[in-house]
Amino acid sequence: MQISNNSAPSRREVLKSSAIATAAIAAPLLIPKSVHAAGSDLLKVGLIGCGGRGTGAAQQALNADKNVALTAIGDAFQDHIDTALPTLKASNGDKVKVTPESTFVGFDAYQKVIDSGVDVVILTTPPGFRPAQLKAAVAAGKHIFCEKPVAVDGPGVRSVFETVEEAKKKNITLVSGLCWRYNYGHRDTFAKLHDGAIGDIMATYSRYNTGALWMKTRKPEWSDMEWQVRNWLYFTWLSGDHIVEQAVHTLDKMAWAFKDVPPVRCLGSGGRQQRTDPAYGHIYDHFSVVYEYASGSRGFFYCRQQEGTEGGVFDDFYGTKGTCAINSGNRYEIKGENAWRWDGVKNNMYQTEHDEMFAAIRKGETINNGERMTKSTLLAIMGRMSAYTGKSITWEQALNSHENLMPDKLEWGPLPTPPVAIPGKMRFM
After folding, report:
1. What confidence tens digit (pLDDT) does each residue in 392-405 have?
2. pLDDT at residue 327 in the model
3. Looking at residue 18, what is its pLDDT?
4. Which of 69, 144, 161, 293 would suit a FRET pair with 99, their CA atoms being 20 to 30 Å apart?
């Protein structure tokens, strides 16, 4: 299906065929499991996307293993690298072995990092680029840390599902940036939910409410493409809108509660109330979505990015035997027949993601978060689709959608801003 006021151009096939890629696909595993056993060999890491999240993820990767080094780095912009690299060198010294020859700039920087001889890649570019970058990394046999979300549209989701299956065949470790699944308090609480502590879950009520985020004022010398990529939060082809880019964390917890069984359909609403200036692209600043499950259960979800409003990240679960509340990750409590309150050891979930990833690589074991991270991404995408159109969207419609948000060409130059979605006028064909 295709949104009528979007030109929906065909997806640019970024990964070009080569002898290396062909060999990678044919090989069961390019990095033998025994190579890095017991920390005896250096694990080389490549960072793709050098913003704040990428810099943080690289730091956590370097903290996760004694014999690991950052050997390659890539970004669309040199100034991003110029900010990230000194920060990482100051904190990690000799663990940062990036040279001018292993520093890459441009839309093809990701492929050059992958081809530079690294063992692990960190994917932290804007989400619109992620399907192609995941595909390239798996084709080359690299272990992967992949930030959330993994796509912004139906074709991207389908591509990632295929890539996840390839990663399984090759025993590639693929760790998701949906970090709450690595939080000890959340793990213990959801284990209780899955063991029936509140009975059958009949409803969830989740919200991800924040203030406004950063925006970079356009410079006269920036082309449309540069302005959009530098302000990627505000363009759906790059971020998926904030329900996909940010609030996917909360939708992932809803998915977790329902054991990653997808809903049948959803109905959403949303709009722009504060961020009406064209400087903020064309995305919404609030969403409200109800997800319907085949069991009759409902997931009630709300998110916003508005200044001067009450914030907070909260998750409430209502079951046949009790209720469960998670308050911004600080309180976990079950009330009812099986009353319980978590009092465990807190952890840094961002660091735990990398600790467990590198431990698995060293042991010759495999972690693959791919299926669940892709399903949670699609949950967010279908919510956006419903809000934009004002229509109910089924899981199958979202998955099989032909709404293709990527530009025909990734090149610096003109790129019109899509119109703001108007429910009832924006429709699927």
Report:
1. 999 999 999 999 99
2. 85
3. 35
4. 144
N-terminal to C-terminal alpha carbon distance within the chain: 5
Task: For 119-167, give the DSSP string.
Answer: SEEEE-S-GGGHHHHHHHHHHTT-EEEE-S---SSHHHHHHHHHHHHHH
Q: What Rg, from alpha-carbon coordinates, does the chain have? A: 21
For residues 363 and 129, give the distance between their C-alpha atoms in angstroms, rounded to a whole number.
Answer: 31
Tokens representing residue 258 in the block = 């329902």
CATH number of 19-178+353-369: 3.40.50.720
12-27 pLDDT, tens digit per residue, is 333 333 333 333 333 3
Architecture of domain 181-345+378-399: 2-Layer Sandwich (3.30)
In the block, tokens 């690294």 appear at: 118
Specify whether the CB–CB gap between 177 and 249 falls below 8 A: no
Domain ranges of the chain: 19-178+353-369, 181-345+378-399
Q: Is the pTM of this model over 0.85?
A: yes
What CA dihedral angle connects 100, 101, 106 and 109, to 10 degrees? -130
